[in-house]
Every structure is written in structure tokens, then in C-alpha cells.
UniProtKB/TrEMBL annotation:
Gene3D superfamilies hit by this protein: 3.30.1390.10
Identification of the protein by name: ATP-dependent Clp protease adaptor ClpS
BP term (GO), one: proteolysis
UniProt KW keywords: Hydrolase, Protease
Organism this protein belongs to: Sungkyunkwania multivorans
């Protein structure tokens, strides 16, 4: 095995082990677009455009990944979404 193959193998292995978590937001019939947008801006640090796009995707597709990262970063953000009455989970 050449050095080049060994390095490539190590890089591929590290990429597989660095999988990030995601906050998935689900559609509901209760919350308004404005409430969802404001909550995404507050909890996930979205821009107004990002939050609006996510809210539209959630409305039409039923769910949308709104934030990715480490579990420690996502857990308090997901809690804020849940406390605001939105349906979300970390996967």
C-alpha cells in the first residue's frame, strides 16, 4: 500500500466518524408563519430570509432541517423551539 492510498483511507475514515446532528422542524396546523420565522431567527440564528425559506419548506414538505452541528450546540436550540410550541427533534 502506498503512502498516498494510506492517507486517503485515513481521510475517508475520519469523514465517516464526524457525522453532525440535525434539528428537524415539523409542520403543524397551529403556528403561524410569522411565529415560526421569528422563532427560527431567535433560536437558530437564522437570517430573515433563511427562516422564511425554512418555514415554506416545512409547510409544503412537512419537515425541514433547520440547523446542523454538535449535539451540545443543538440541544438548547431545539429546547427553545419546543418551548415556543414548535415541533422539532434532534436526529
Amino acid at each position: 500500500m502506498s503512502i498516498k492510498e494510506k492517507v486517503l483511507e485515513d481521510v475517508l475514515l475520519k469523514e465517516e466518524t464526524l457525522k453532525e446532528n440535525e434539528i428537524v422542524l415539523y409542520n403543524d396546523d397551529v403556528n403561524t408563519f410569522d411565529h415560526v420565522i421569528e422563532t427560527l431567527i431567535y433560536a437558530c440564528d437564522h437570517t430573515a430570509e433563511q427562516a422564511e425559506q425554512c418555514s415554506i419548506i416545512v409547510h409544503y414538505k412537512g419537515k425541514c432541517t433547520v440547523k446542523t452541528g454538535s449535539y451540545d450546540d443543538l440541544e438548547p436550540r431545539c429546547s427553545m423551539l419546543l418551548e415556543a410550541g414548535l415541533s422539532a427533534e434532534i436526529i
